[in-house]
Design goal:
The protein is α+β, with helices and mostly antiparallel strands. The chain has four domains: 80 residues, no CATH class; 92 residues, Immunoglobulin-like; 128 residues, Immunoglobulins (Immunoglobulin-like, Sandwich); 51 residues. The strands form five sheets. Strands 9, 10, 13, 14 and 17 form a five-stranded mixed sheet that branches. Strands 20-19-18-21-22 form a five-stranded antiparallel sheet, with no helix packed on it. Strand 15 and strand 16 form a beta hairpin. It is flat.
């Protein structure tokens, strides 16, 4: 019996070189390039200015950064923290209403925290929350005034089902940022400035949208830390005069070339930035277990030197089989990194090769990629 144990131990020792080379050298998580790439980022942190701090006043916060996380805002002197909602990938918004027990001051410290995959990024607010009146010239006062929306129009669609398009046009203060929100849809979308003071863009209706012909549509224009809103006064369903306007709009586009300037905005459109292979690691447990079982089975064969040879062969064969089983259990997986139009990125993992390549245009629906 002692001879058998000594023979089995010798077989295991002989099999050790088969798996020692396969054991990877541990890498510190913070030093790995992929770990650094997955750290959350905050690319913007904004708030509207108040005339004065008083109960009932609202602070509207916006944080732009890595999508799929949770964002909170902490205000020094406030009685609670504010949890933001991700209104579209990488954009987090929320409103804090000042209460009677809050002790918020104009110079209160305000920070945003963005948590993604257990990691947190913190950024302090650089803007002020109270508008400070200055002695300025009439020309400077006009530039510092709140932006305005002069006209807000839409080119309706014959059908408000998925895939159809609505073209919005806003004319107002130049050099501003214009956002449109449609009742029955999630989030907001931005109209690009096609010429000074004119903003236009196409919204493609998604499958999850539930837009009524008379749905409420609002446009918000932001500039110099201030904003104004306007409500659309037209139905979204094309017909009658709207159809004529649509034809006139097309003729005007052909004359002025605006059809090449209007940008299409898609909330779930993205570009494949990279496809990474996550290689599985074969551990020592499967190899050792296979060697032990193989050695025991080999020990039951023959006698004398024949039994010793069978024991060694069984241990070696078991070690190889154990490694093969564990390698199949830890097969390579794939990670597709996509970048949205607003610059935010997201990683999606697959058990098998999804077939995507860097540079492809895709859509992200409930964590599933499809080619655009």
């Amino acid at each position: 019996m002692a001879t058998t144990r000594q023979t089995l131990a010798a077989a295991v020792v002989a099999a050790l070189p088969l798996f020692t080379a396969a054991v990877p050298v541990p890498v510190q998580a913070q030093d790995h390039p992929r770990a650094r790439a997955m750290e959350p980022r905050i690319e913007g942190f904004n708030v509207n200015e108040l005339r004065r701090i008083e109960p009932g006043a609202e602070l509207n916060f916006e944080v732009y950064g890595t999508p799929g996380g949770s964002a909170t805002v902490r205000i020094d002197g406030a009685t609670r923290n504010l949890n933001l909602t991700e209104t579209r990938p990488g954009t987090y918004q929320g409103t804090y209403t000042i209460g009677v027990h809050d002790r918020i001051r104009p110079d209160s410290s305000i920070t945003a925290n963005l948590r993604v995959n257990g990691m947190v990024r913190t950024q302090a607010l650089a803007a002020t929350i109270v508008r400070v009146p200055d002695r300025v010239s009439p020309g400077d006062r006009e530039m510092a005034a709140a932006p305005v929306v002069r006209t807000f129009d839409v080119r309706g669609s014959d059908d408000l089902g998925p895939g159809n398009e609505l073209k919005f046009t806003v004319v107002g203060t130049p050099g501003a940022k214009v956002e449109v929100q449609i009742a029955g849809t999630k989030g907001i979308f931005t109209l690009p400035e096609v010429r000074p003071g004119e903003y236009a863009g196409l919204y493609t209706i998604r499958r999850g949208d539930n837009i009524a012909p008379d749905a409420s549509v609002t446009a918000t224009i932001r500039a110099n830390g201030r904003y104004s809103t306007a409500t659309l006064g037209q139905p979204l369903l094309a017909g009658g005069r709207i159809r004529d306007d649509r034809m006139d709009d097309r003729r005007e586009d052909r004359r002025s070339g605006d059809s090449q300037r209007v940008a299409r905005y898609c909330t779930n459109c993205a570009t494949v930035e990279s496809v990474n292979v996550i290689q599985g690691e074969a551990g020592a447990a499967g190899t050792l277990g296979g060697a032990a079982v193989g050695g025991l089975l080999g020990n039951q064969v023959g006698s004398g030197s024949g039994r010793t040879a069978a024991t060694v062969a069984g241990a070696v064969g078991g070690a190889i089989a154990g490694r093969a089983v564990e390698r199949n259990a830890r097969a390579p997986r794939y990670e597709v990194v996509v970048r949205y139009e607003n610059g935010a990125t997201q990683s999606i993992r697959y058990d098998n090769d999804p077939g995507f390549r860097a540079g492809e245009q895709v859509r992200v629906t409930d964590g599933v990629l499809t080619r655009d």
